[in-house]
Amino acid sequence: MKFDIKRHIYLTLLFILSFTTGTANPQEADSIRITVTDTIPTYTSDSAVISFLKDAGIPITRNSKLKLLKSGRAKFIDLFEEIRKAKHHIHLEYFNFRNDSIANALFDLLGEKVKEGVEVRALFDAFGNLSNNRPLKKEHLNAIRAKGIEIVKFDPFKFPYINHALHRDHRKIVVIDGKVGYTGGMNIANYYIKGLPEIGDWRDMHIRIEGEAVNELQDIFLTMWNKSTKQHVSGDKYYPLRNDSTFKGDKKVAIVDRVPRKAPKLMRQVYIKSIDAAQDKVQIVNPYFTPTSSVKKAIKRALKRGVEVEIMIPGKSDIPFTPDAAFYTANKLRKKGAEIYVYNGGFHHSKIMMVDSLFCTVGSTNLNSRSLRYDYEVNAFIFDKATTHELSTMFEHDKLDSTLLTKEEYKKRSGWKRFVGWFANLFTPFL
């Protein structure tokens, strides 16, 4: 994928300029404070976060079946197989569909399902499509709709364009027949399988969910769909698991949905609560690691308590500027005691966190201002030791393809790169 620097600069400036006319206040929005005492905790970290989520009104579903999809190939094989089984409906919500071989194969398959009488609805973000170097254009959308697929662009750019830069739909959700759901960090693009010449393999993470948690993903999709189309799609036929007492699963899952203006602080709060509750170890993989000040403070508090904090960032990235800020931020945390691993096996785009070998999260949320302050995001928080262990095992394996960031390693970066990192850090409230 050839990087379009002019388009990236335009979109970045458009987003930053929107703050000059908007009411967003990064300092005010980032004013979360969670009190931490020095007393010995009498709780486990997972129970503390579950309690927090319940108080926030987030359901903890207890009967899920889960399957981690740790590569693009695994995701698309599983997704296509499940689509072929669909009987009633297929719902897709993505930041973007890249106009390439995998998307074409997907829309061809969805067209076949329409012929079988299956309802197919697809939603994608206008900003995500615009930032894509192979976007869906009018003729592509016409061809997709000719197959009988309903496809809608979320918040299309209209004059004045600047008003549309905030609050983009960055979620990745699929719901099939109301029984199987998918979420995670992958859009629809063939580079999740083939990689990119500039950065090598594209590492990413997705998860397949069965059980009551799928109802939560369905709620999210239908709310956004009805908002975007002015339709009123609803009814029990989209929620078959509500009346199914025979389904058996054993995983506890909470679907955390960040909705601008409605629950703008929720994702930050759950991340902060998770880190503040940690007693032993926190492991984080995130591609654009420029967290808000409240998240950085939570990490520093954990380090001060003696919690082991390991953070993995990619050595290569699909965009410029932000990775330099990530190195700067990561090095600051290294000085406080965090272990920073720079992944060299391609671009690690996963958005995961594991805490105390007890619970984990997989989702669409980057640890940056764009995700934590502005966009629509969704993460599955999974309270299951086996799933957490599987992710931690992957983390340990990925260390073998990583470089431990030390003072000496950081100084190997050129003076110019270090300056760019410092300069980019000044813009992290907007990145």
TrEMBL record:
Molecular function in Gene Ontology: cardiolipin synthase activity
Entry-linked Gene3D superfamilies: Endonuclease Chain A (3.30.870.10)
EC number(s) given by UniProt: 2.7.8.-
Predominant location: membrane
SMART domains given in the database record: PLDc (SM00155)
Keywords, in A-Z order: Cell membrane, Membrane, Repeat, Signal, Transferase, Transmembrane, Transmembrane helix
Domain PLD phosphodiesterase positions: 165-192, 344-371
Leader sequence residues: 1-26
GO cellular component, one term: plasma membrane
The organism's place on the tree of life at top rank: Bacteria
A Pfam family matched in the record: PLDc_2
Compartments reported by the entry: Cell membrane
Single GO BP term: cardiolipin biosynthetic process
NCBIfam families in UniProt: bac_cardiolipin
Name used for this protein in its record: Cardiolipin synthase
Taxonomic source organism: Phocaeicola sartorii
High-level lineage: Bacteria, Pseudomonadati, Bacteroidota, Bacteroidia, Bacteroidales
